[in-house]
Design goal:
about 325 residues; alpha/beta; Quinone Oxidoreductase, Chain A, domain 1; Rossmann fold; 2 domains; 6-stranded parallel beta sheet; globular; oxidoreductase activity; ADH-like_C
């Protein structure tokens, strides 16, 4: 097998494409021939030693991937050789083969392609957990989605629409705003026109008739958090999803009091670990929605696995719409 190896987590440039022994699965594991792997923000942090999970060195990055089961270890009964699966295991995806815990593998229904599957679990499970479970989103409510043209953002647009909500999507360029409209947003806000310090609150107010959004989905953080939260509706729910802009914001808690609003943490990874049955039910619903066309990953482009460093550079340019996927 071949894989991108991180022997020194000082950044993308230190990754090397190496030939490694093809491993045999141990008890509870399967070996997967990887067909596609998506690039997520944690995949950048982990090779910079900035992610909360710090795997032992050396390791192969790549948190999310899809492929074909090649071999099964002792005790694995729900998967078989030749089966198509997707997996979100945190590492191992940027190569031709990997060992994965069988319990983390999601069997793919017929018609669920590897590229879509590799771009599915993280963004849709996160957004479904956030909007449906944590925010209890109801039909007819208004959702403001920040960073709406990215992977979790486009998934959130689709899920909110499927739930019957009205979506306002915020993104940084006209091109990204056009994508959000195409995915189902009723209104868009262009950050380059309506900045956090220059009219963002006024535009949110205008687009909600002065009421404010019932739910704010925020994977961005930074300077956008406070003006967005100041705009929230009475009994609104502010979803803390991530901090893609870098800085972790500090919100004045008196705002939550004045709006009767909730600040709601969204940590899908721990939810999946602590509440596996609930997460499995979520994934079953999402798979059904995919089969009926309610949700489908937005794929910015696919690149050969050998071009991982190019993919990282594209992601770093913040020009990606949806997801980048590497293929073997």
């Amino acid at each position: 097998m071949q894989a991108w190896l991180c022997e020194n987590p000082v950044g993308v440039d230190a990754l090397t494409w190496k030939e490694l022994p093809t491993p045999e699965p141990q008890a509870g594991q399967v070996r997967i021939a990887i067909k596609a792997a998506s690039l997520n923000f944690p995949d950048l942090l982990i090779v910079q030693n900035k992610y909360q999970m710090k795997p032992p060195l050396p390791f192969v990055p790549g948190s999310e991937y899809a492929g074909v089961v090649e071999a099964v270890g002792e005790g694995v009964t729900h998967l078989k050789v030749g089966q198509n699966v997707a997996c979100l295991s945190g590492t191992g995806g940027f190569g031709t083969h990997t060992l994965a815990p069988a319990a983390l593998c999601f069997p793919l229904p017929d018609g669920f392609g590897h590229v879509d599957a590799a771009a599915f679990i993280m963004i849709y499970a996160t957004s479904y957990h956030a909007l449906i479970d944590r925010a209890a989103l109801k039909a007819g409510e208004t959702v403001l989605i920040l960073g709406a043209a990215g992977g979790v953002g486009t998934a959130a647009i689709q899920i909110a629409k499927a739930a019957g909500a009205r979506v306002i999507a915020a993104a940084s360029t006209e091109e990204k705003c056009a994508l959000c409209k195409a995915e189902g947003a009723a209104e868009v806000i262009n950050y380059s026109v309506h900045t956090p310090t220059g009219g963002l609150r006024d535009e949110i107010k205008r687009q909600t008739g002065g009421k404010g959004p019932d739910v704010i989905y925020d994977p961005v953080g930074g300077d956008f958090a406070e003006p967005a939260f100041r705009s929230i509706a009475w009994r609104g729910r502010y979803l803390v999803v991530g901090f893609a802009s870098g800085p972790i914001p500090s919100l004045p808690l008196n705002l939550a009091l004045l709006k009767g609003a909730s600040i709601v943490g969204v940590f899908w990874g721990d939810y999946a670990r602590r509440e596996p049955k609930a997460n499995a039910a979520d994934m079953a619903t999402l798979a059904q929605w995919y089969a009926t066309g309610k949700v489908k990953p937005v794929i910015d482009r696919t690149l050969p696995m050998s071009e991982l460093k190019t993919a990282y550079a594209v992601m770093g340019s913040r020009s990606v719409k949806g997801k980048l996927v590497l293929v073997n």
